[in-house]
Structure formats: structure tokens, C-alpha cells
Amino acid sequence: VQPKLIYPKFNIIKEWELEWYNYRYQYLMYYEYGLFVHALKNPKLIENLSHIGLLHYDVKFKKGSIKEIYQSLEENPNIIFYNTWRQNDTLYFSYNQLKEICKFMSERLDMNIDPKYIWDNGWVSEALSITPIEVFKKFGNFIINSQYEIESIINNNKWGIMNNVKHRICGFVERLWGIYLVSSGLELKQMPIIHENSLYEHLHYKYL
Fold it and tell me: Residue 17: which pLDDT band, with cuts at 50, 70 and 90?
């Protein structure tokens, strides 16, 4: 498959060339979610930012989409942009498992995460999002401070979450991120972009 070309005016930063870099996040299959740790551990990357986007390389911006996003943020900076909304059938958790996960997150993020609201209304799927920088930092610190507990949930099949679907850490953190965004209390707005995910070479889970 021919990789998608990246517009040459973009400043491309290679994760492994950062001043602080830890390969464990790729080794353990955090994949794109290693950004949270590397951005916070290399604070010069995000200093003076009001918002930050977490996007895949296989995103195509529609004509005028960047202008539209800027205009929306100027009108209300407290917006979270997302690309994909999914319902509870794609969480691959039971309701009781979701309750345990929300309790785990609520305690460590010091916020109320309501499992019933997520179950009834859905969650933000995939990494594709733009958030206020403090929203990003809060979740990043959650990953840094709770990473071994998060990994233990997967490795030890806590609450039986691996019984029906074999979650990988990237897919599990994807769900934590999506649940967190929905629970932030901020306005959620869909991004005017196209996600061409046919070039994916890794799965976030697999059926047993």
C-alpha cells in the first residue's frame, strides 16, 4: 500500500527523536496514545497551545474544514471536536464492567463519570479529536499516573473484561479517552474531516 503523502509545509516530529522518549509505549501497543505521555514529558512541544489535536495520518481535511474549526473555537473555545460517535455495543464491555471502569476513572481523574450516561448515549471512538489543552493534559497525567494499573486490568483480566473480546492496550485506552471526553461536560462537535482508515495495519482488539 502506498503511504499517504503529508503536506510538506507541516513540521514533522519523529517521536523517537524527542528529548524524552520511552519505547515501552510502542512495545506495549499504546500506539497513538503514547502521545499523551510524550507530549507531557516534552513540554516544549505543547507550550503556549490553547488546543491540541490527536489525529491519524489517514485523515483528509475537507475544503474549508480548518477554517470552520478555527471559527468554532473563536466563538467557543470550550469545545471538544470528535470524528466518530459509537454506541455501547462497540465498547465490548458489559454494563457491570463499564461501571467498574467508570468508577476506576472517576477516582483517579477526580470527576464524575456516569456509566449509565455512557451506556445510554454512546462514546467518542477513535483517537480523532481536538480538545482544550487542559483537557488533554488531565488525561495525559491520568495515563502517566495510572499506566501500570491500566495495564494490569488487561493483563490480569480484571472484571473479566477479556472474556469475550481480547482488548489490546491501544483499544482499551481509546475507550477510556472516549468515555472521558463524553464526561467532560464540554460541548461536543463533529469535525468536518474524512477518516480513511483502510490503511490500518493493527487492530485494537480481536475476538476470542
Answer: very high
